[in-house]
Fold this protein.
Amino acid sequence: MTDTVAEPLTRNAATEPLSYGSYLEVPELLTLQRPRTDAHDEMLFIITHQAIELWFSCALHELESVRGAIQGKRFRQARRGLRRMTRVTSLWLGHLDVLATMTPTGFSEFRGALGESSGFQSVQFRELEMICGLRDRRYLNLPGATTEERERLLRRFHEPNLNDVFMDVLERRGLTPEQLFAPDRPDEDLRDTAEDLLEYDALFHRWRYQHWLLVVRALGTRPGSGGSSGSEFLRTTLDKWFFPELHAARSHVHTLPGQEPTPAPGGNTVYGCPMGYGSELSA
Ligand code: HEM
């Protein structure tokens, strides 16, 4: 028997049948993790971010469909999409849990290589915020974004978001958010969809909280690579909610006769951007 080494397999996309690797473009995918240092934890840092960016892409796809379903009053379909989104968002918490095994010392071994890059500049994250309900025009001018990415952000900014379309459907039914949650209302399809929207909002909020906690543990009170105060800045983002009117209506349910309703959490408040990005925007 001769000791031959098998030729490496090459594929011809035009003639060869699809395989697992070629359908998913696995070889191409695996060329995209390129640490800039020899630090052991840098690979984990890159893969966690890339994995979450892939899920962001999946989330945008799903949320577009949820928005269309609400606009078309296909509430069962909207609820299915929202339940999927809640699960997708809980996966991101798991990703952050894995990254939390990195110690501040492990992080410090490659942090310098990040330069001024930061999750703050994630275009898809801003798209997600916009499609759900947050409009802050300063994020249209994200540092590091390409022309194509800025155009995408602008489009998202002007599109109706989930909060707009749900409020629109309520209005067409002649309902206020307070009436929706009132006991004995017959509008079960809308109320159940509202519950799913709030559930999703809560999960997204948990992501913000868990990310903040991760940053507290990894950086303490040090500023972020993107130039913000770091954990202090991220704490202010915990006031952001996608569906402020629905949240406000919840407190209305518990308001006793003669009491003033309590105000809604944050909502679409425009927050001061500690980096000062976007001051020159015009959209
Ligand atoms: C050890 C891990 C991490 C650290 C130390 C960290 C640190 C920070 C800091 C300090 C900021 C504030 C902006 C700045 O000054 O840089 C930030 C923002 C952000 N990070 Fe992270 N991060 C980590 C992991 C992640 C991961 C895995 C993701 C997933 C994509 C992510 C996504 C984001 C996003 C989207 C923002 C903007 C949040 C907002 O403006 O509401 N980060 N991060």
About this structure: The chain has one domain: 40-110+117-253. Residues 118 and 226 are 5 Å apart (CA to CA).
